[in-house]
Specification:
Layout (H helix, E strand, L loop, with lengths): L2 E3 L2 H6 L10 E9 L1 E19 L2 E18 L7 E3 L2 E8 L12 E8 L12 E8 L12 E8 L16 E2 L1 H14 L6
Parallel strand pairs: 1-3, 2-3, 3-4, 4-5, 4-6, 6-7, 7-8, 8-9, 9-10
Length: about 190
């Protein structure tokens, strides 16, 4: 799919084959250089999706999720997905600043070389999730539950709710940028 969609919710409502009450399903699709700018949906389900150099900005989704989704390059700034469930997901080289994934479940996911500044993972569960060379500046980890997650070469400047990183593996370089937020969480004044 190529082109621009100004309102994802309106575009789906115009699709006679869409089952809006049961959620929207998109399967086995390639979105190359596609632009989706805004819109709200409930229960979007993605399966076997490749997104390449797309812009998915300002969309708000409640419920649903994705399985075997790969996003390469492009931008998903300001996107909000609440109560989603994601498995076998890869984001590589994506600008995903100000993204909200609240109360989501992420399983077998990898974020590599992404701008995830101000990412909000409040109340989410991470199970075998890897963050590699990502900018997590001012990210929110409040009430995150980690079964297995690793952070390698990441920046955590100004992150909040870092006690939610309990059980995570963090390499030494990432830990250096995490010391300030950890000290703040513990009420320690660094002089």
């Amino acid at each position: 799919m190529r082109g621009t969609i100004e309102d994802l919710g309106a575009a789906v409502a115009d699709d006679p084959e869409a089952d809006v009450l049961g959620g929207i399903r998109i399967e086995s699709a390639v979105l190359a250089s596609t632009r989706v700018l805004g819109g709200e949906l409930a229960g979007l389900h993605l399966r076997d999706i490749l997104v390449d150099q797309a812009v998915l900005a300002g969309i708000v989704i409640d419920g649903g999720g994705g399985t075997r989704v790969e996003i390469t390059g492009g931008r998903i700034s300001g996107a909000v997905w609440i109560r989603g469930e994601f498995h076998d997901v890869v984001l590589d080289g994506v600008r995903a600043d100000d993204v909200t994934l609240r109360s989501c479940t992420l399983g077998r996911a990898r974020f590599s070389r992404c701008d995830l500044s101000r990412l909000d993972l409040t109340g989410s569960r991470l199970d075998h999730v890897r963050f590699e060379e990502c900018d997590l500046t001012e990210a929110v980890f409040t009430d995150v539950t980690i079964r297995a997650a690793s952070f390698r070469g990441c920046r955590f400047d100004g992150a909040v709710g870092v006690t939610g990183l309990t059980n995570a593996e963090v390499d030494a370089d990432s830990l250096l940028t995490l010391t300030g937020p950890m000290a703040a969480a513990l009420g320690i004044s660094v002089v």
